[in-house]
Each structure stands twice: as C-alpha cells, then as structure tokens.
Specification:
- There is one protein chain.
- The chain is α/β, with parallel strands linked by helices and 154 residues long.
- The protein is built from six helices and five strands; from the N terminus they run αβαβαβαααββ.
- It has a five-stranded mixed sheet, with helices on both faces.
- Helix 2 packs across helix 3.
C-alpha cells in the first residue's frame, strides 16, 4: 500500500519490467502437419481470451506421437518452450472434464489437450478447459506451488 502510494507521488525514470513465474502448461491437440502459425494463433487466442500471459508458459504438452510434429516442434524451438509428450496409456488414465469419443477412436485416449496439460502440470483441475480453434485444441493447467501458503497470481 505504501509503495503504491509512493509510486503515484514519485515518477520513476527506470524502465518497468514484469516477471511472470512459468507455471502454465499448455496442452495441445492437432492434426498431422498442422502449421506452426495455426497452433501459435490458437494458443494466443486462448491466452488473450482468459487474460493469461505468454511469458507464464512453462511448456507445451501433447501425445507422444506428436513429438516430431513440425508445427509443434518449430513453435517450441522458437519460444524456447519444452515439449513434453505422454503415451495414450498415460493420458487415458487422466480424468478430464470433456472427453471425446472421436479422439479415442483416432489416438486411443479420450483427451489429448486437457489430459496432457493436467499431466504436465501435475494437477487435477484445469485453468482453461479445451478450446478449439480451426482444428487445434488447447487447454491450460497451472502448476501448484510446492510451498504451502504460497500462490501464483497471473
């Protein structure tokens, strides 16, 4: 309170910077050969819609058969994000709010984006449930702090 009052009274000439803890795991599901631009736009749209910061992204999570997906790999390299992948068996064991019979038929698990985000973040609740943008699916889970009483606010 005192600092914010002081800030209003004194003009600081130093540039402002913001720090965001990297606590968001973005789960991504997409078709084969989906371009980087489409995946990136899908993620940006979700971040904007939910007022989340790109700098808070810890990494991208998806199904293991997408480990060499050019659009995902290019995006992760460009943004310096790790790409974590999980087998359909691991993802199938994750309880999700929006399972899909079509996804089960295609890849053997009822969820890719939601399950991968939850698995990567090590939590049971999504911050953002799956959002579909032109065939790409994005879901976001937030890592919980290991220190009791500490919380992250984005």
């Amino acid at each position: 309170m005192i600092f914010s009052q002081l800030q209003k009274m004194v003009r600081f000439d130093t540039p402002e910077s913001q720090w965001f803890p990297q606590v968001l795991w973005v789960g991504v599901g997409c078709g084969r050969l989906t371009p980087r631009s489409l995946i990136e736009t899908a993620i940006q749209q979700v971040l904007q819609q939910y007022n989340l910061e790109e700098n808070a992204i810890a990494g991208i999570a998806t199904l293991d058969i997408k480990a060499d997906e050019p659009g995902l790999v290019e995006l992760c390299q460009a943004k310096n994000w790790p790409l974590r992948t999980f087998s359909s068996e691991v993802l199938r064991a994750v309880e999700v709010p929006n399972p899909s019979a079509g996804v089960v038929t295609a890849v053997g698990t009822p969820s890719v984006a939601e399950a991968a985000a939850l698995q990567a973040a090590g939590v049971n609740t999504l911050l953002v449930s799956k959002q579909i943008y032109r065939g790409s699916t994005v879901a976001i889970a937030q890592v919980q702090p290991k220190t009791p009483g500490l919380f992250y606010s984005l």
